[in-house]
Amino acid sequence: MTTVDTPHAGALLRAWRERRGLSQLTLAHTAGISSRHLSFVETGRSRPSRATVLKLSDRLDIPLRERNTILVAAGHAPVYPEHHLGDMPMAAISDAITRILSSHHPFPALVVDRHWTMVDSNDAVGVFVEGCAPELLEPPINVLRLTLHPRGLAPRIVDLGQWRGHLLARLQHQIGATADPVLLRLYDELAGYPCDDPVEEIEPHSLVVPMRLRTEAGELSFFSTTTLFGTPLDVTVSELAIEAFYPADEATARVLNGS
After folding, report:
1. Residue 209: predicted pLDDT
2. In which band, very low, low, confident or very high, does the pLDDT at 55 lie, cut at 50, 70 and 90?
């Protein structure tokens, strides 16, 4: 039987400190503990208390899911619950999501989890999925894969080079913040898709990055916003993002409003 060594809590905290580019002295100072104690924690000579793990995790901006992992590695119970959206404690969150998606119609809006899997959407998202390969639309739908896959949305995106560069940059930033191996594999997959359009640099004077899309109603232009839940204390809530799309010009607004 093969056993897998699980990193101790200190090793996990050290990895996050190094990922954030902080010295032991700087982290210890901002967390209000001695650098000697932090050194003992990182080397495994001292087991961190629950309060110390939470304090260091907060200073390092560690995702809630990983904070629970470090707590367990330190011999403590997880602090942050993880509910499904259909669970009773999530009723208010689910209701808020439904209201946001509904109120954003006739403009497209969708909800994704930490791996860019679509959790929910409004009917206006149909403008994006028309013509996409059926296998890309089978749940679970990965929004980035659907967008950049050569049998997905990509062939209809006029400014594919720029939009592709924008999405890959966002994903790369997310990987840097979370160190999620699933996202790293997703990045490698998406970056390997064939694309004849070179990555275009965003114009310095641009306020947003638009996506111009060929549709049966003509070319439509969108920009997007991302909404996160403030100060979440639930793992699921902390990993949800609402991606809302708005018309970037009057012509697109008229088409989406049906006028």
Report:
1. 79
2. very high
Residue type at 246 in one-letter notation? Y
Q: Which domains does the chain have, with CATH numbers?
A: 9-73 (1.10.260.40), 88-256 (3.30.450.180)
Q: Which token pair is 259?
A: 């006028």
pLDDT recorded at residue 194: 87
Q: Is 52's pLDDT higher than 80?
A: yes
Rounded CA-CA distance 131/220 in Å is 15
**Residues 67/57, Cβ–Cβ less than 8 Å:** yes
Q: How large is the average pLDDT for residues 132-158?
A: 97
**Two tokens at 152?**
């997905």
Quote the tokens at residue 112. 């994704």
User: Using CA atoms, how far apart are residues 256 and 236, in angstroms rounded to an integer?
Assistant: 32
> Own/partner pairs for 204-210, CB < 8 Å, 24+ apart?
208/248, 209/162, 209/163, 209/166, 210/159, 210/248
Q: Is 234 helix (H, G, I), strand (E, B) or coil?
A: coil
Contact 202, 166 (CB under 8 A): yes
Task: Give the model confidence (pLDDT) of 36-48 as tens digits.
Answer: 999 999 999 999 9
CA-to-CA separations, 86 to 80, 82, 97, 166, 246, in angstroms, rounded: 18, 12, 12, 33, 28
pLDDT of 206 strictly over 80: no
Backbone angles phi and psi of 209, in degrees to 5 = -95, 110
Residue 207 CA to residue 228 CA, distance in Å, equals 21
CA distance 176 to 173: 5
